[in-house]
Amino acid sequence: MPEGHAHHAELIDQQEPPRPRTVRARHAASLVVLRMHGDEPHMLMGMRGARHRFMPNRLVFPGGAVDRADLTAPCATALPPHTLRLLRKSANQHLAHGIGIAAARELQEETGLSLGTPPHLDAIEYLCRAVTPPSSPMRFNARFLLVPEHAVSGTLGGDGELENLRYYGMHEALALDLALPTRLVIERARLWMAMSEAERHERTHAPILRHQAWRME
Predict the structure, then answer these.
(1) Inter-CA distances, 38 with 35, 167, 168, Å
(2) Band of the pLDDT at 210, cuts 50, 70, 90?
(3) 90 within some domain
(4) Dist CA 62 CA 44 (whole Å)
(5) In this structure, are residues 150 and 86 in contact, taking their beta carbons and an 8 Å threshold?
(6) Domain count of the chain?
(7) What percentage of the chain has pLDDT greater than the value 70?
(8) Among residues 76, 96, 79, 78, which one has the least CA distance to residue 87?
(9) 12 domain-assigned
(10) In this structure, is residue 11 part of a structural domain?
(11) Which of 11, 97, 113, 158 is the most exposed place for a label (fewest CB within 10 A)?
């Protein structure tokens, strides 16, 4: 090989490989339905099947991506002011509404339980936000919401997307092989439950999980 060509090939070898394109994180909502059994909180969770591209064979909360139709879908009652205030830290008015609607819709589709038709959103609390790392092939900008069991109605069933669907005690769930974000969200729920109602309503910042670490926004 001529010297010039060899030098050119050497320069090519030294170049960094092209970086993969970062996938844009889709807005999503997950709903933690809380049931108290004695002193221990229980949470409605189910196992995602092996066929799923995102978090297969993992125990998760009901939830999914926010659809465009969710942004303008009707509701029977709106999100509480304190919940809306925290959602608006990272979402406009339409998206904040859509997140509440998506949480109600996904709950009904995946579990058979309902917040009503149209849904009542006034019992929904805001817990935290988690953003999938940029290196992931599928990414979500997920808001985790909570609602007490007495706010939902219906018979547990759903569309079959979640297997082993039932209420898991917090200690039982934490003893399982959970994905790290799910484990951290449960830990965050435990901190939220230790607050008084006044403390929850007076929060001015909410936690966001990025790169496996919490910060406040």
Answers:
(1) 10, 14, 13
(2) very high
(3) yes
(4) 8
(5) no
(6) 1
(7) 87
(8) 96
(9) no
(10) no
(11) 11
Q: How far apart are CA 117 and CA 114, in angstroms?
A: 8
Q: Is the separation of the CB atoms in 127 and 192 below 8 Å?
A: yes
Q: What value does the mean pLDDT take over residues 139-147? A: 96
Q: What pLDDT score does 212 carry?
A: 86
CATH label of the domain that carries residue 199: 3.90.79.10
- pLDDT average, residue stretch 128-132: 95
C-alpha 101/C-alpha 124 separation (Å) is 11
Q: Report the alpha-carbon distance of residue 212 to residue 44 in Å, rounded.
A: 23
How confident is the model at residue 216, as a pLDDT?
Answer: 95
The CA distance from 33 to 210, in Å, is: 24
- Locate 56 and state its tokens: 């297969």
- Which candidate, 138, 145, 64, 174, places its Cα nearest to that of 108? 64
Task: Note down the domain range covering 172.
Answer: 22-216
Rounded Cα–Cα distance for residues 183 and 189 (Å): 10
Residue with token string 């909180």: 41
Contact (Cβ atoms closer than 8 angstroms) between residue 188 and residue 146: no
Decide if 123 contacts 74 (C-beta within 8 A).
no
